[in-house]
Write a structure and sequence with these properties.
mainly alpha
Length: about 475
């Protein structure tokens, strides 16, 4: 059985969150972040790479209502197909309620069909890029579903992420436009002035979008990944019937750890942890742990690598080298950081607010990260930067949220447009909070703890 560990034992702070400290929250009773439920524990035990016979016994005694909740939680975490696989491959030989098995089977088959269609599009894109001599690598989901998991239907994905050398970005842009893809804003091929790690999304409705990366970590953050060395270490493979490349096993493990940290360990919940555990199992005979340690230090990613690998080890029984994990552990490491990351992973399985409220909470989360743990001068600078971001940011903002170019009078009115957008978000958040005080208070505490974790991850004293 996988132990939920510090989430069960560590009390949460009783201080009222700095974020959303509003009158209607002032009297809201403190409630724990709802992560350590028995259903979460059971889902972890089902997905763990080490099968515990006691899990089968617990499943056999599970009432129908708990079966339905187990399916719902697995869907929120994006691991429904994996749960279906575990329940049908003999890991737990027991009868599953017909309705539950039908729901899981339909989710698996639908995901397999979507991925089959996605790989058809991927083959077209890869062929176009390869024919012009671009050395392209397949990243993330398309790599995992095709090469790491035993069936393409086990890993949900929504887009195609590709890594292209910086010098080939203009050529890749031209080729994608030739086969019908377009972007909402004009891409900039000067990566030194670019915000983010990829060009604007390439869209061709109703086909999946394409993201052309030139590196695997946002350069404006604290990571120091050398894209040239990444390209040099690529491995040749065949995906969707086309010869292409993927990251080396060590780089792929590190990429997943960084991706978890960039998304505060909360995006898609358990799915990235399952991805990491599956990758470690697939490459268990060839992983060079000394290279992982040295590259984590070189990339200034030691903190996130330690936390991510420990999560995979403790939640999924992943095959992590104990010696490597001990070496990666940061000096003066406080268990509270692991506790918060653990909470963020499991919170994805909790029913979230409506989409418009969740969208309204995004600016609140950004504000929390900017003002948490900084001095007054830093807070003022951050707020000014938020109120008046640089032009490159506003170009992307207007294209993404309003599908408008930043030309003419919009160069000056775009800040007013953005302020009105944020005002609308704030109004929706106030309306929701007035009727859902408890849920809003819990979400506010979650955002505050995310901000604290992010400050530690991006703070000084990198390992």
């Amino acid at each position: 059985m996988v132990n939920l560990g510090p989430v069960n034992r560590s009390p949460l702070s009783r201080r009222r969150p700095r974020l959303l400290r509003l009158p209607w929250l002032a009297t809201a009773p403190p409630s724990p972040l709802p992560t350590a439920s028995p259903i979460h524990q059971l889902l972890l035990d089902c997905l763990s790479r080490v099968t515990d016979p006691a899990t089968g016994a617990r499943l056999a005694q599970l009432p129908a209502t708990d079966w339905r909740e187990l399916v719902q939680v697995s869907a929120r975490h994006g691991v429904g197909p994996l749960l279906y696989d575990r329940l049908t491959t003999g890991a737990f030989p027991l009868p599953v309620p017909v309705g539950v098995m039908q729901t899981l089977r339909e989710a698996f088959l639908m995901n397999a069909l979507r991925n089959t269609l996605l790989y058809q599009d991927l083959a077209q894109v890869l062929t176009a890029l390869q024919q012009t001599g671009i050395r392209v690598a397949v990243l993330k989901g398309a790599h995992l579903a095709a090469l790491i998991y035993p069936h393409i239907g086990l890993r949900p994905m929504a887009d195609m992420d590709l890594l292209v050398p910086e010098a080939d970005l203009p050529k890749a842009d031209t080729l994608l436009r030739k086969i019908g893809y377009n972007t909402k804003s004009e891409p900039s091929f000067d990566v030194r002035s670019q915000v983010g790690k990829h060009l604007p999304e390439y869209l061709k409705p109703p086909h999946p979008r394409v993201e052309i990366h030139w590196t695997i970590a946002p350069p404006e953050l604290f990571y120091k990944v050398n894209p040239v060395r990444l390209i040099e270490r690529l491995r040749p493979v065949t995906i969707a019937g086309v010869e292409t490349h993927v990251l080396s096993p060590e780089d792929f493990v590190l990429h997943q750890c960084i991706h978890l940290a960039v998304h505060r360990f909360c995006l898609h919940g358990l799915r990235p942890i399952c991805d990491l555990a599956a990758t470690l199992h697939h490459h268990r005979e060839e992983l060079d742990w000394l290279q992982i340690q040295s590259r984590a230090a070189e990339w200034r990613a030691g903190k996130c690598v330690y936390v991510a690998l420990r999560l995979a080890s403790e939640l999924m029984s992943a095959e992590v080298s104990p010696a490597a994990l001990a070496t990666l552990r940061p000096e003066s490491f406080a268990e509270r950081w692991y506790t918060i990351a653990h909470e963020q992973v499991l919170l994805a399985g909790v029913e979230s607010p409506p989409d418009d409220v969740e969208l309204a909470l995004s600016p609140a989360g950004a504000l929390a990260e900017g003002v948490t743990g900084t001095r007054l001068v830093g807070k003022v600078r951050f707020i000014l930067r938020i109120a008046f971001p640089p032009r490159d940011h506003m170009v992307a903002y207007m294209a993404q949220f309003h599908s408008l170019p930043l030309t003419g009078h919009r160069q000056y009115t775009c800040y007013l447009t953005r302020a009105c957008d944020w005002g609308g978000h704030g109004f929706r958040l106030l309306c929701y909070g007035a009727t859902h005080r408890q849920e809003t208070a819990v979400r506010a505490r979650q955002l505050q703890r995310q901000a604290q974790l992010w400050r530690w991850l991006t703070g000084p004293n990198f390992p």
